[in-house]
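Progress narrative, work stream C.
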Amino acid sequence: MTSHRLVIAEKPSVAASIAAALGVKEKKDGYIEGGGYLISWCVGHLVELADAAAYGEQYKKWSYESLPILPEEWQYTVAADKEKQFKILKELMHRADVSEVVNACDAGREGELIFRFVYDVAKCNKPMRRLWISSMEDATIKAGFADLKDGRDYDALYASALCRAKADWIIGINATRLFSCLYHKTLNVGRVQTPTLKMLVDRGEAISHFKKEKYYHVRLGFSGAEAVNERISDKGKADALKAACEAETAVCISLTKEKKTAAPPRLFDLTSLQREANKIYGYTAKQTLDLAQTLYEKRLLTYPRTDSAFLTDDMEDTAAKTVTMLSGKLPFMEGAEFTPDVSRTLDSSKVSDHHAIIPTMELAKTDPAALPESERNILTLAGARLIFAAAEPHIFEAVTAVFSCAGTEFTARGKTVLAGGWKDLERRYRATLKGKPDPEDMEEENTLPELSEGQTFESPTAKVTEHFTTPPKPHNEATLLSAMERAGNGDTNPDAERRGLGTPATRAAVIEKLVKSGFAERKGKQLIPTQNGAALVSVLPDMLTSPQLTAEWENNLTQIAKGAADAGDFMQRIEAMMRELVKENTAADKSKAVFTGGEEKPSVGKCPRCGSPVHEGKKNFYCSNRDCAFTMWKNDRFFEERKVAFTPKIAAALLKSGKANVKGLYSPKTGKTYDGTVVLADTGGKYVNYKIELPKKK
């Protein structure tokens, strides 16, 4: 019997790329076979932690008394629509001719979790190997298979992934149920989501409490230069200074010239790519991640879920070849003079799991014009960044001249470019964009005339300009991603472990969930907290809203992944925090929060599963809690067979007492109608069941 190596990828498209690289061609139901390989795939998260209801009947309904829910033995579930693929994987794992299983899921924390959940729930005990690669090119895949790692080398990474999943479950389930029960409204609370919301609310409050103030500048004009004084809050004083200056002599009291260098930018990690794509193209963080993932699966971009802005030292040759290829491939580089130096993009000590995001050599064989515009934009952006990073520094001379006039100092600043370097290339790239370049990124050259210390200017021209202080700007995706990345960094030195809210891979989903839950909304590029978002933050304790605390947890997870912290200790702290939370929050604080929505729609009753209001839709009666699946369909076969309309009156009775007296029920057996009692027989599944209560025998 020929032994086979079973390879499990995260998605069908990745499995297809691996099969193509290894020359495996025979397609079967749910896997590809050939050359001693069986190559199959998960469909994202095939196996997940079970919902609270799996731990006992008492958790089917949301109630304060049942909290906290802290599983001792964790239960797992396979999503109903993914059962077929799980069954295929399980059968393949247990095939007698399978000698070992290769985890080829994405090389990161979540990829490890996806594979291990399937491996464990399928009760597989075959030897486990790990494919750990950063791009999907044929050569990289082959090299990865020639250097497979022992799967157990990644046990610490799995431990951190499992802690992340369990901590999110414990905080999400308990805090959401606790505050939803107290305030009689579905209030989604999350380990990373809620502190992120707090950032949006804090910024919103800073804007609403901002008081605009008027101020003035006096500006002196010389031949080809303008010098400005410090701000003056009083118009009369500004006018008096202007008049005094026009009648006096201005003297240049200091002149400093400083040669400065703006180093080329670093390569992209996922967060910086998302920020730049938001600034330039207006893409959301999720759109950028999805586009980068698609390009990765098309083998045109390296692995996107990375937190490193460097390449490994052994990639010098690859980087140099890629830069040369890009210089001929990207239209904005046509005719540009460019001598690349990739050495400053290399630093193995700053790469943990995956190197920075760059295009692959596969692009040499691809026509970028054939790609969808959005994919082409991301690929060009990543390619342009690699070119800038390998270009010469931007060198300029900064000149600062200080003048004295009427007993007041005025300052003029100038900038003379000595070597354009990478900024010349960036200007070329920006010129190809449809939108206008960002003024913050495109500083103009401003040359001052020849000046010397002691030089005098008789009766200079003077003018007063009026200005207003400006409030902080609302967050957009770019600034919020930066804030999430920096959260908790304030008290640590720059060399400390990166803290931050969430990981590069999860931040986009967190922002999307805030919008979907109705706690934040998009207005153009801006992200604004809603009234419900502000109200939720106001009723929650610091332990749930503090970005510093949550950043500490994320740091703990990173340490667990490195084997430098204990998973058990981390989980004990999370459980203790939940017990404390439930103990300290026993009643709603109505003075703090006013929640909108939900109440505006008439309710037909309370959900038997979670206690939230049930509303009437066009085709159904549905629970207002987006995390609860309870729905009663008006066209349910039970009522259609009995030829009665499923009215709001029947729905209200079923929700109130679990029973409804209904007249004119049709019997398919006898062809007659009768009056009877319909009972709600909800088992907590996807569909709600009903039955007829038989009259009790006398």
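Work stream C, second folded protein:
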Amino acid sequence: MSRNTLAALIAGLFTLPVQAQQTPLLDEIVVTATRIPTPIRDSLSDVSVLDRAAIEHMDHVALPDQLGTLPGIQLTTAGGRGDIPTLSVRGGNAGHVAVFLDGMRFSSATVGTTAIHVIPVEQIERIEVVRGPVSSLYGSDALSGVIQLFSVQGSGKPAPSVFLGTGSFRTNIASVGYGGQIGDTRFNLRAGLEQSDGFSSIKAPKGGLFDMYNPDRDAYANENASANLSHRVSQDLELAAQIFHSKNSKHYDATNCDAFFVTCTTNYDNRNLQRLEVMQASVKYRLNDILDTRVQLGQSSDFAKNWLLDPVTGIVTADEYQTRQDQFVWQNNLKALGGLLALTGEHRVIHVGSSKPFVVSEQTTNSISLGYQARFRVHSIQASGRHDSISGLGGHDSGFVGYGYRLGDAWTARVSYGSAFHAPSFNDLYWPLDAVNFFQGNPNLQPEKARNREIGLSYAADEVRANVAVFHNKVSNLIDFVPGTAPTFIGTMGNVNSATLKGVSVDYGAKTALWSWRLGFDVLSAKDDATGNTLQRRAPRTGTAEVRRDFGRFDLGGRMQATSVRYNNGTNTQQLPGYAVMDLDANFRIDDNWKLEARLGNIFDKDYTVVRSTLAPFNDYAVPGRSLFVGLRWSPGK
């Protein structure tokens, strides 16, 4: 795309006509970008929000796929709903994104990523995504962005809610809840089940020792439950507690080989199980008009189990990995220096249990951060700094400074600079000597580091919000595999690479009395500095377009996602064709309590490839064809 074409597109987005409604987009409040509630129009970060209405309009598209509709996020999945996805924000690796549920971090310390596919959308009220480095507020992993999920909270008169849905691939979803507010107490209870017969994870056989094709259906099942409770003791004091549980079981196709990789088979029902749990309690106290404080104490747990077969002996083994994170967060918000200061202290202890005998099984992180934001007439300032002390890895500093200039009532130009880091995973650091796979962890690894420069232009007026961000992120100390040499040939991980991630991200949203639009477009260059190759599965161009028409009790929406040609491997020898997929959804409000929802996915039955295996014969992972899902929602008083 030429610069002139891009400029014309941006100008066209800003000038689309709209008619204002009662709740302007510019009044929307976001928390994640600064840790302080801030109107989205005043944010100096690249932020996107999915509220409950937007989540429901996608009619039970899985959470990873919903995130994949947002600008700056590229999603790859292998095997349909319930399979482990890979999220890349602004070209970063999967581990370069920190994920939180109501302020509690949850992730696997062994692989260094978060199992967001285990979170059902019926449990989520709102999603905030910050693109760019945010380690100065959240520490490790927030190298290319932060995703924060907010669970459903009780409000209004207590009432039940029920959702039942069914669709293609024998997919069935049920969710029930009861919540509301009684006096100064809010509560919400929710539980759900999901199951699907699915389809074969691999499209077709290609022959060869490592051919993964198995014609069986790869089923998926999820069970989930949550409880939220908060009580306002006084005008200044609020107590809250929460518990969340979700268990995911997924079958998949894989090649099962003996220890010497001589005999392999796909004639086995491979499966994995993943369980996420989050518990927390918090106290929020307003001391006076200047200072308020919040203490949050919680624990998150990620458990994973994977079954494998040795085709020679017939022995089935099950690898297990458990991550438990004990977390303490104390945040103080102070009105000072013409703005707001946020002083936050954190203590986090990671405990790892595994069927593999890790030499080190615990890691402690102590952190302190200071954030500041202020607006002086047409000038806006945002700054933050943080120090993390991590056992075994030493101390690490990160920072952010941003400046915004209000060009008029609607326009804001901004510029920022930020640094970030990503600590190596336990697998990278402490994996025990593995003579079968010729690998051993490297305890001398250092965190990956990033330095990001960014300029942006945003527009917010009535029911229009648009944003353009141009970024340049230099990532050093990238962790990659280092092959071993004779006589042992035992390889390990090393800080051997660097990469440059740069691009342009366009985000646009608007509403009128009858119509709403959402458009996103990204141009990305993600290059390995040593070779000049494009990083694996990073598409240089992606885009999403959504339009919705309100007919009163009935609304109809259409969404198209497009991805350009990209490379399946780091050597850029395998090219994956570009594709575009279109979905339709419709919602009919029967009365004040009942709503009928329907979604027709991939309406043109497009056959495309998102992921190809990295071993010969390079199997293509399957994607769902045309599919239908219909649901009925009962929510009295909503």
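The first helix runs from residue 3 to 15. No further action is required on this item.
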